[in-house]
């Protein structure tokens, strides 16, 4: 059996502090994969082209562009880049954001989803000197309209264009949370991608770049996360509801009786989110209920009635 090729990780920071952290990560062999497969770690200063990292063929990731467009004080300032990686969670699993209040942990994925949709739909990102750089469309051209499909999918023109995965562990009385985002920027198969839609809209000579999208996301996320921590998710709910797909949506729920041989149907209307982050719905007779996800589709839910047995959508 031929030896396995090592996974390449390029580590760099925006400031001297993050670059020193990058050196420590390399020197201490901190970055590892769960299966102990071989890893090669390089600092930005050690690669042949310090501004660009080859992704494959003529595709590159422009590190300096990303750093120039990043305007955060906390998030996104340490970059770990790999041209090919089975899962980003494999690398960041040991470097998670810590939260003490477990009640708000389920809401983090909504903050992440909102930040990404706003980063794309806003159509601009601020450079380090404060100027806005338009990346998605020219003045007067239609912008993209990415929407949130609860609980963790991003949709564009009725098709899935991305998804959010948040995981958490509990240790030493703290919840360690990590968030992963998958987004189709250039690869339109099997569903759709941002740049293909822009081409259909007539914006052919100004395409979305990954560096711009990632920087714009972190700029948005840091602002939203600060609001989330200091004021609660309620302060973001109005904007979230403008972005998601489900306000006023009617859902047919099927409930089996105790002997499992008969099924009754209930029509509910989506009203919003509960304080715990699940769907808040109302029945035709005015009762409220809470819908929980079971899988990744909105129709895969079970219904936790306030004054009735549990029911399931089939």
TrEMBL record:
Protein name, as recorded: BPL/LPL catalytic domain-containing protein
Domain BPL/LPL catalytic: 25-229
A Pfam family of this chain: BPL_LplA_LipB
Entry-linked PANTHER family: BIOTIN PROTEIN LIGASE, BIOTIN--PROTEIN LIGASE
InterPro entries: aa-tRNA-synth_II/BPL/LPL, BPL_LPL_catalytic
Regions annotated as coiled coil: none
């Amino acid at each position: 059996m031929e030896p396995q090729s090592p996974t390449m990780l390029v580590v760099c920071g925006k400031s001297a502090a993050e670059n020193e952290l990058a050196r420590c990560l390399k020197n201490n062999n901190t970055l590892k994969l769960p299966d102990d497969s071989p890893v090669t770690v390089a600092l930005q200063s050690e690669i042949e082209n310090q501004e660009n990292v080859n992704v494959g063929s003529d595709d590159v990731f422009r590190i300096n562009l990303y750093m120039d467009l990043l305007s955060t004080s906390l998030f996104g300032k340490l970059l770990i880049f790999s041209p090919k990686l089975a899962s980003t969670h494999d690398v960041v699993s040991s470097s998670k954001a810590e939260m003490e209040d477990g009640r708000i942990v389920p809401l983090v994925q909504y903050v992440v989803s909102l930040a990404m949709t706003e980063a794309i739909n806003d159509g601009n990102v601020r450079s380090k000197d404060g100027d806005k750089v338009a990346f998605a469309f020219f003045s007067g051209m239609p912008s993209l309209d990415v929407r949130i499909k609860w609980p963790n999918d991003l949709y564009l023109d009725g098709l899935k264009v991305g998804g959010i995965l948040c995981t958490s562990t509990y240790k030493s009385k703290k919840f360690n949370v990590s968030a992963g985002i998958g987004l189709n920027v250039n690869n339109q198969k099997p569903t759709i991608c941002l740049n293909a839609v822009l081409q259909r809209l007539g914006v052919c000579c100004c395409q979305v770049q990954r560096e711009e999208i990632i920087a714009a996301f972190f700029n948005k996320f840091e602002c939203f996360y600060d609001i989330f921590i200091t004021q609660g998710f309620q302060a973001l709910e109005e904007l979230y509801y403008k972005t998601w797909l489900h306000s006023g949506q009617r859902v047919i729920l099927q409930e089996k009786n105790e002997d499992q041989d008969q099924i009754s149907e209930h029509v509910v209307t989506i009203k919003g989110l509960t304080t715990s982050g699940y769907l808040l719905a109302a029945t035709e007779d005015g009762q409220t209920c809470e819908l929980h996800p079971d899988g990744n589709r909105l129709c895969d839910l079970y219904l936790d009635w306030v004054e009735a047995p549990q029911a399931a959508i089939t």
